[in-house]
Design a protein that fits this description.
Blueprint (H helix, E strand, L loop, with lengths): L4 E5 L3 H12 L3 E5 L11 E4 L2 E4 L5 E2 L6 H8 L8 E3 L6 E5 L2 E5 L3 H11 L4 H17 L1 H4 L7 H8 L3 H8 L3 H6 L16 H13 L1 E4 L4 H13 L3 E3 L4 E6 L4 E6 L3 E4 L2 E4 L3 H7 L7 H9 L5 E9 L10 E5 L18 E6 L11 E8 L17 H21 L7 E7 L1 H8 L30 E3 L8 H17 L1 H16 L1
Parallel strand pairs: 1-2, 1-14, 2-10, 7-16, 14-20
Antiparallel strand pairs: 3-4, 5-9, 6-9, 7-8, 11-12, 12-13, 15-18, 15-19, 16-17, 17-18
Helix pairs in contact: 1-10, 1-15, 2-16, 3-4, 4-9, 7-9, 15-16
Length: 503
């Protein structure tokens, strides 16, 4: 019997991980990438010999036996990458109202560290941390405990906002702000983003936090090699221009507006709006298209990529978040005078235990409307006004960072910039949003994207289907592939792969 042909549109983490799992299970996998590089947000780029991360800046729960470690072993990635652990006494540092607060790894260390800053809140910190663990472990997908999810816990904290839940547990307003100091990792919004999103992120990184030595593109290249080893193919410069359907299902894809490739199953690792644009079929109702088009998107980002002078700046083994108006909330709402309200600053890791920083980045929110004058232009051809705009914003962001690090400018050798337009060009995410579709408690099920479309053999994967980040996307991959293999099969394969690695 011939193998079923699967075409995967897009080579981001979701597309490649689906490719690995399905290739392992006997499917004939073809991954089509429109760009020159594979990886999506796993991509790195090089300028004048200096290497920069674009999206996957650091990962969590990757210590031996933890959730991401198990998934990376299952995907045959673990042995192909080297990890450098962030400072366990403070992997994240939040600067707020003239003070700095360190997030330590592990429940006891985290509570002890925060209690040093807020002695009267120790009991509340214990309640908070236990709640985070309870919510994270209630999801069988996030904890990899098959069929052990707690639906009641899951539902409650998907319908309550981050700030509402934290304010019900923490009675010190400053501590409540400190605990959401890593908001740029998921672009949460007050009264909208569910507490479950915060809990998954906090649990993920607080178990352990690492940078990938040499860049996260090593994860992408590892999965490409696995797909090819299992008989699949990964092709670049192959832009899918249409998903071709008959009256009942999809029959294949049109590539580069010309070639036709037949398929039994199609998985789209693009933004759902981009997927719907490819589907010119009555199987998708206009009302559904309208609903997806109306879904809110997370804010976009402006990034300054920094190359430092040789042996000039000591390597910073943590992430640094600062907020200029005394709160991590509402940084997405700004005007010309108040931007940037906050930022995330970090260094990239080029070797296992670096002494000196070679490259890094400063990331702040930016709305797509700020760069609307250049919509429709292409990378490298946006004109002098755009370059002037980016330089002005970069200088202002560096000035803001220099308040916390007064001698910072003297260490910069070169810098480069990206805007929501850049992100849109490389990833196709709607509005150049950093994390795709935004979670909103007020929308309920209407705010969720189904992994199975109304075209029965067209599935979706990627950061919009479950949640963003490495763990969120891989959880979404399990959901997508479960439509073809069953969740039980995948869970058992994860267990078997990890038992094998211990032998």
């Amino acid at each position: 019997m011939s193998r079923q042909r699967v075409i995967i549109i897009g080579s981001g983490l979701g597309g490649l991980s689906c490719g690995v799992i399905l290739a392992k299970n006997g499917y004939e996998v073809t991954v089509l990438e429109q760009g020159m590089q594979v990886g999506g947000c796993l991509q790195c780029f090089t300028r004048h010999g200096a290497s920069f991360e674009t999206g996957m800046h650091f990962i969590g729960s990757a210590a031996k036996g933890q959730t991401l470690d198990k998934l990376l072993r299952y995907l045959d990635v673990a042995d192909d990458i080297e990890l450098s652990q962030l400072d366990s006494t403070g992997y994240d540092v939040v600067a707020l109202r003239g003070h700095q607060y360190r997030f330590a790894t592990g429940r006891d260390h985290f509570i002890r560290q925060m209690s040093d800053y807020f002695p009267h809140q120790r009991k509340n910190l214990e309640r908070y941390y236990d709640l985070v663990e309870q919510v994270a472990s209630a999801s069988s997908l996030h904890s990899l405990k098959y069929a052990e999810s707690d639906a009641v816990i899951n539902t409650e904290y998907q319908l309550r906002s981050i700030n509402e839940v934290i304010d019900s547990v923490i009675t010190d307003p400053l501590l409540a702000k400190v605990l959401v100091g890593n908001l740029p990792l998921y672009a949460a919004e007050r009264d909208k983003t569910p507490f479950s999103t915060h809990a998954f992120i906090m649990d993920f990184y607080n178990q352990s936090a690492f940078r990938i030595v040499g860049g996260s593109d090593k994860v992408a290249h590892s999965m490409v090699r696995t797909i090819e080893k299992l008989g699949g193919v990964v092709l670049t410069r192959k832009k899918v221009t249409r998903i071709v359907c008959d009256n009942v299902h999809a029959v294949g894809v049109e590539v580069n507006g010309n070639d036709f490739l037949p398929a039994d199953i199609i998985i789209s690792d693009t933004h759902p709006i981009r997927t719907l644009e490819l589907l010119d079929t009555k199987l998708i109702r206009p009302a559904f298209r309208k609903r997806v088009k109306a879904m809110p998107q997370t804010v976009g980002g402006f990034c300054v990529y920094l190359e430092f002078k040789e042996k000039s700046l000591p390597y910073m083994n943590h992430n640094f978040y600062a907020f200029n108006e005394g709160t991590p909330w509402d940084c997405e709402h700004y005007d010309e005078a108040s931007w940037p309200k906050g930022y995330l600053y970090m260094h990239f890791c080029q070797e296992k235990h670096p002494q000196w920083a070679t490259t890094g980045a400063i990331l702040s929110y930016m709305q797509m409307k700020d760069v609307e004058p250049w919509l429709g232009t292409h990378v490298g051809h946006r004109g002098a006004d755009y370059e002037s705009f980016k330089k002005m914003k970069a200088e202002r962001l560096i000035d803001s960072l220099s308040i916390q690090f007064p001698d910072f400018r003297q260490h910069i050798k070169h810098y480069y910039t990206s805007t929501p337009l850049t992100y849109f060009d490389y990833t196709g995410t709607e509005g150049g949003s950093m994390y795709g579709i935004a979670k909103d408690i007020s929308l309920g099920s209407a705010g969720r994207v189904p992994h199975r479309t109304k075209v029965p053999n067209v599935l979706q994967t990627g950061q919009n289907i479950n949640s963003h980040g490495m763990l969120g996307v891989l959880v979404g991959t399990i959901v997508t592939c479960s439509e073809l293999l069953s969740a039980k099969t995948i869970y058992q394969q994860i267990i078997d792969a990890n038992l094998k690695s211990e032998i």
